[in-house]
Amino acid sequence: MSADTRGCLEKISKLIADQVGPRRYQVWFKNSTRLRLDGDHLQVNVPNQFIGQWIERHFAEDITAAAAGVLGKSPQIHTVVDPSLFANLRKRQLDHQADSVTRQIDRATPPPANGKNHNGDGKWQSKFKLDDFIVGPCNELAYKCATEAARSPGKQFNPLFIHGGCGLGKTHLLQGICNALGDHGVKWMYSSAEEFTNQFLWAIQTKKVDRFRARFRQVDVLVIDDVHFLSEKKATQQEFLHTFNEIAGGGRQVVMASDAHPKLIGQLAEPLVNRFVSGMVAKIEKPDRATRRQILIRRAAGLGMTLSDEILDFIADNIQDNVRELEGALFKLLAYRSVDNGHNGDLDVARVRTMLADHISTVSPAVRLGDVEAMVSTFFGLRPADLHSSRKSQTVSTARSVAMYLTRKMTGLSFPDIGKYMGNKNHATVLQACRRIDARLADDLLLEWETSAGVMKQPAREVIQRFQNELTR
Fold this sequence. Notes:
Blueprint lengths: L2 H18 L1 H7 L5 E5 L2 E6 L2 H23 L4 E6 L9 H16 L33 H12 L8 E5 L5 H12 L6 E5 H13 L3 H9 L3 E5 L8 H16 L3 E6 L11 H7 L3 E5 L4 H14 L6 H10 L4 H17 L9 H7 L1 H23 L4 H5 L5 H18 L3 H7 L5 H16 L3 E6 L2 E6 H12 L2
Parallel strand pairs: 2-3, 4-7, 4-8, 5-6, 6-7
Antiparallel strand pairs: 1-2, 9-10
Helix pairs in contact: 1-2, 1-3, 2-4, 5-6, 7-8, 11-12, 11-13, 15-17, 17-19, 18-19
């Protein structure tokens, strides 16, 4: 990295700190991220998918503004998982992240004034188009349903519920639907479940519930991302149920996405689950080899890169989990190319293997661990940050033990490695958690955890089997 580039990155980091404030910078950026700059691309390396998604959702505009302030133009921002960064995190920072998430979720906030929610006649900025979506056997059903929902809202797949792991294209499809609808004069609303929750709480606080309901219910198409965020929020779930019934009951379209199947979203009211599964539920799987290869070709072209068939085959064979990791590999090659003064014609498989060695050796277990964390935290009505924290409530302890057990069984990671990725726990903690779950399975005992409706009890064997089935599909 040149001195000029290093200086730019230091200035960008300082501006980010100034914009988000010292406390939030300490919690979400210091030791959690690493910036890389290459031309019109700013890569934000993050230790895991949860932190990456949180930064994308809450700080994307701050990062863009900081970069523009230094560079004189707005670069394209990309977050890439770099599991090696997790070693930099400490227990206190992980606890602060969990506390920060809880405070933001529990605090009512006013509706955003910068156009994050849209109804077709306001500002809308999304690069995702349905025509740009790479279709393969792993996502063909979800894509066809999304296309039909955009073409004929409310006619066939209503409601449409798309689910799958992180980085597989759910948000691409949802925002692609909105972009398609925007061309046909259809009144629509796109929002995350988090934004829906925050605006509902703010409406109650400011006595503007009627205005809130008019905004969300008087649309032809309602698109809600990250539905699992509604878990355990009884009042918001009730409000969303009425909103859902009014729209879908009137023959208008509802489209939703979540990290988990509706029946695997913990502490979600049964009437909502029943509504969600009453239409089309489509899962996006991890991309198969042919799809991964097509994604690489399309993304590389967008970055101005031309890769040989041998290099494409090598990356597609060795990075198999999701689109974001494929993009991360390309950005690493792009960074090396910039060091070589823009020449990539001499790249061969041997050099690429060396460049991506750390990426390939760490990405698969980390991404699978991310899948486990997302599924387990959603099922127990928690957030991934809670699993990383040092909290010891019954629900968090049970969920953390299940996550550690599944990670050990499904990934083959060592006890120390699992401990490192699960909040810098020591190997004895992971070993004890695995033995605890093994004992409950052997004796056919129940798992117990707290919910807003009281203590939940389910057979450990059924819970673990449900997770294993979903993770191996």
